[in-house]
Amino acid sequence: MNPSSYNYIDVIESSPEILVMYVNGVGKFRTFVNTGISVAPTSFGTYPVYLRYTTQTMSGTNPDGSHYSDPGIPWVSYFNGGDALHGFLRASYGYPQSLGCVEMPFASAATIWPHTLVGTLVTVRA
Q1: Does residue 97 contact residue 34 with C-beta atoms inside 8 Å?
Q2: Alpha helices in 2-69 (DSSP H)
Q3: H-helix or E-strand spanning residue 6
Q4: Stated pTM of the model
Q5: What strand order describes the sheet that includes 7-12?
Q6: CB 75 within 8 A of CB 54
Q7: CA-CA distances (angstroms) from residue 37 to 2, 48, 100, 107, 110?
Q8: pLDDT truncated to tens, each residue of the chain (126 aa)?
């Protein structure tokens, strides 16, 4: 048993989709999130955060081949390739809408970002 404290993120792709943040092993925060749509899903598994930004321009290719460039995306924590936890403005949260990332309201992303240091585990599951 490791006596050190630990934080981790649990993303549950149920209906509605939620994220639970554990601080020192105790569930401390919960928020509705959006994960990837069927043609760009968020991969199930457990991954460590490997890169973080307070704000970033995110760009890429949509499923229809068009390109996007979204400046000012806040509180970004990459955990699996191009998949990241981050803030994103949407009309609603709780169901697949992203291109693989875990999107959440800006305030929620600001709350969890200080607890997702490099190495923090992120689990995505059904």
Answers
A1: yes
A2: none
A3: none
A4: 0.94
A5: 26-32, 18-23, 7-12, 121-125, 45-48
A6: yes
A7: 37, 22, 7, 23, 24
A8: 555 568 999 999 999 999 999 999 899 999 999 999 999 999 999 999 999 999 999 999 999 999 999 999 999 999 999 999 999 999 999 999 999 999 999 999 999 999 999 999 999 999
